[in-house]
Amino acid sequence: MAAAIAPLTGMVLAFAWPPEAYLWFKTLHIVGVVVWFAGLFYLVRLFIYHREAAELEPPLRQAFEAQYALMERRLANIITTPGMVVAVVCAVGLLSVNPAWLQQGWMHAKLAFVLALLAYHAFCYRLMGRLRQGQCLWSGRQLRALNELPTLLLVIVVMLVVFKNQFPTGAATWFLVALVVAMAASIQFYARWRRLRAERQAAELAAGG
Ligand code: HEM
User: Fold this and answer.
1) Given this model, what pLDDT does residue 114 score?
2) Residue-wise pLDDT tens digits, 55-65
3) 75-84, 130-139, 176-185: which range is least confident on average?
4) CA distance 3 to 55
5) How far is it, in rounded angstroms, from Cα 132 to Cα 185?
6) 183 CB-contact burial (10 Å; exposed 0-12 / middle 13-18 / buried 19+)
7) Which pLDDT does position 198 carry in this prediction?
8) DSSP for 60-106?
9) Which of 64, 93, 104, 154 is a plausible cystine mate for 25, CB 3.0–4.6 Å?
C-alpha cells in the first residue's frame, strides 16, 4: 500500500509547502470526512425508504420511488462523493507534507480500512443503480444492517488516527464495541416493532371495516 502511494506523494512533494499547510490539509481532511460520512449514512437510509416504498399501492409507489431515486442521486453526486474526494485529496496532502507517516504500522492499518470504506462507497452506487431499475434484492432489514458497517469503520479509523501505534485493546475498547453492537441491535428491534405495530393496526382496520 505504502509503495503504491509513494510515487504520488513524491510528485506532490515537489512543491515547497508553507509551514501551516499541514494544519490546513488536516482541517479540510476532517471536514471532508464529516461530509463523506453524513452522505454515506443518509444515502443508505434513503435506500431503506426506497425499498419499503415497494409495499405501497401503484400510483403512490411510482411517485415515491421516483422521488427517492432523485434524492439518492443528488445526495451521492453532490455531497457524498465530493466529501470523499476532499478527504482523500487532503489525506494525500498530509502524507506529502509528512511522508514519514507511511512508514508506520497504524497508517498501513488505516489505509486498509479506508480501502474497505471506498469499496463500501462503490457498492452504494451499485445498490443505487439496482434500486433505480427496480432490481434491488436487499430487504429493508438487510439495508439497515448494512448501514452499521460505516459506523464500525468510522470508530476503528478514528481510533487508529488518535491512538496510532498504541491502539488500545482493553476494557474501554470492548465497551465501545458493545455500544456499537447495542446501537445496531436496537435499530433492528425498533424497525421490527414499528412493522409489527403497522401490521396489527392494518389488521384491526380491516376487521373493523
Ligand atoms: C484516504 C485515506 C486517508 C489517509 C491517507 C489519511 C491520513 C491522515 C493523516 C496523515 C492524518 C494526520 C495525523 C496526525 O497529524 O496526527 C489524518 C488525520 C485524521 N484522519 Fe485521516 N486519512 C485518510 C482517511 C480518513 C478517513 C476515512 C477518516 C475517517 C473515518 C479519517 C479520519 C481522520 C481524523 C479524524 C484525523 C484527525 C486526527 C487528529 O488530528 O488527531 N481519515 N489522516
Assistant:
1) 98
2) 899 889 999 99
3) 176-185
4) 50
5) 28
6) exposed
7) 87
8) HHHHHHHHHHHHHHHIIIIIIHHHHHHHHHHHHHHHHH-GGGGGSHH
9) 93
Residues in the chain: 209
Task: Tell me the pLDDT tens digit for each residue of 5-20.
Answer: 556 555 555 568 898 9
Q: Are 116 and 153 in contact (CB under 8 A)?
A: yes
User: Which residue type, as a one-letter code, is found at position 171?
Assistant: A
Q: 206 alpha carbon to ligand 1 midpoint, in Å?
A: 55
Which residues contact ligand 1 via a Cβ below 6 A? 26, 29-30, 33, 87-88, 91, 94-95, 101, 114, 117, 154, 157-158, 161-162
Position 47, amino acid: F
Going from the Cα of 93 to the center of ligand 1, the distance in angstroms, rounded, reads 11
Radius of gyration, CA atoms only, the chain: 21
Rounded CA-CA distance 151/10 in Å is 33
